[in-house]
């Protein structure tokens, strides 16, 4: 087989911010479309999301995910949905608020406590072993990696290029936007090692009411259907880990590729890498 011969592309869908305050109607339709197209989505779940309303000078209340909402997701597990822990309360982080949950600004023991408590809560709700962690705001550090390993996590999914690539965790970069997903899948068919991870949020869909939304559910269904024509093999995080594809060395290789894409030296790379626009979403 030649280097450019098409092969089945492997792809992961990740939906962030599933929580007590997120749009249930949007999420239900998303899950339905994923199931209709024979795909699979990793739902990054916030166990105790920070509420948007609180008393003046009072504590910010946390809203736990309800069993009713968890049951919606359980209807699509395990064939079309998988659960990952997405932080603890996912409060908005700014240079003024300092509401960091993870990273060097937070003691490792506190990070460990949050990971253990959030994981135990989700495992009780969904009746599954939660192995994957998605850091809110892509904020994590060496201390977070240590806490994750001590808490028994096996998989970390963050934005490629922003975090560390060391330790015994499997790293699954999530950095492909919807407008580049189809073209990236086409490119991935020429690389037997490629895996494409598309990250979605509620605000990506016009049905959510967000003015900045870039697509509707019809577009998502069409995108997934088109990917089916490209012989896409859908996987969850746990399936990726079982295949042994995403070690820390693999993540570092992707970073090297991104740096090459931003350099005139990309012309020296073998086809098809030199045809990719920087940054390469891998």
- Return residue spans where pLDDT drops below 50 for at least 5 consecutive residues: 1-5, 247-251, 260-282
Give helix % range.
25-40%
Number of domains: 1
The main pleated sheet reads as: 5 strands, parallel
The CATH superfamily turns out to be Glycoside hydrolase/deacetylase
Q: Number of DSSP helices?
A: 8
CATH class: Alpha Beta
Question: How far apart, in Å, are the first and last alpha carbons?
Answer: 23 Å
Describe this structure as you would to a colleague.
The chain has about 280 residues and is α/β, with parallel strands linked by helices. The protein has a single domain (about 10-275), classed as Glycoside hydrolase/deacetylase (TIM Barrel), CATH 3.20.20.370. It has helices spanning about 25-35, 65-75, 110-125, 140-150, 180-190, 215-230, 235-245, 250-260; strands spanning about 10-20, 40-45, 50, 60-65, 80-85, 130-135, 155, 170, 195-200, 235. Strands 1, 2, 5, 9 and 10 form a five-stranded parallel beta sheet that branches. Strands 6-7-8 form a three-stranded parallel beta sheet. The radius of gyration is 19 Å and the shape is globular.
């Amino acid at each position: 087989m030649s280097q450019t011969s098409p092969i089945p592309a492997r792809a992961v869908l990740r939906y962030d911010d599933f929580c007590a305050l997120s749009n249930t109607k949007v999420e239900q339709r998303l899950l339905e479309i994923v199931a209709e197209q024979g795909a699979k989505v990793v739902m990054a779940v916030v166990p105790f999301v920070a509420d948007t309303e609180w008393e003046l000078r009072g504590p910010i209340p946390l809203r736990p995910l309800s069993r009713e909402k968890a049951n919606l997701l359980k209807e699509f597990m395990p064939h079309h949905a998988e659960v990952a822990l997405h932080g603890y309360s996912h409060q908005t982080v700014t240079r003024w608020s300092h509401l960091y949950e993870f990273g060097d600004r937070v003691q490792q023991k506190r990070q460990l406590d949050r990971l253990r408590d959030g994981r135990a809560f989700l495992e009780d709700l969904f009746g599954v072993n939660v192995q994957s962690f998605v850091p809110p705001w892509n904020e994590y550090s060496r201390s977070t990696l240590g806490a994750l390993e001590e808490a028994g996590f096996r998989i970390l999914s963050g934005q490629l290029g922003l975090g560390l690539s060391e330790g015994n965790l499997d790293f699954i970069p999530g950095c492909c936007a919807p407008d580049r997903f189809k073209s990236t899948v086409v490119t991935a068919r020429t690389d037997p090692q490629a895996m494409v991870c598309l990250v979605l949020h509620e605000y990506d869909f016009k049905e959510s009411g967000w003015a900045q939304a870039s697509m509707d559910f019809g577009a998502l269904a069409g995108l997934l259907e088109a990917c089916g024509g490209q012989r896409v093999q859908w996987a969850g995080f746990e399936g990726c880990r079982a295949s042994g594809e995403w070690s820390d060395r693999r993540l570092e290789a992707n970073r090297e590729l991104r740096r090459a894409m931003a350099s005139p030296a990309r012309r020296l790379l073998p086809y098809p890498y030199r045809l990719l626009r920087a940054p390469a979403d891998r």
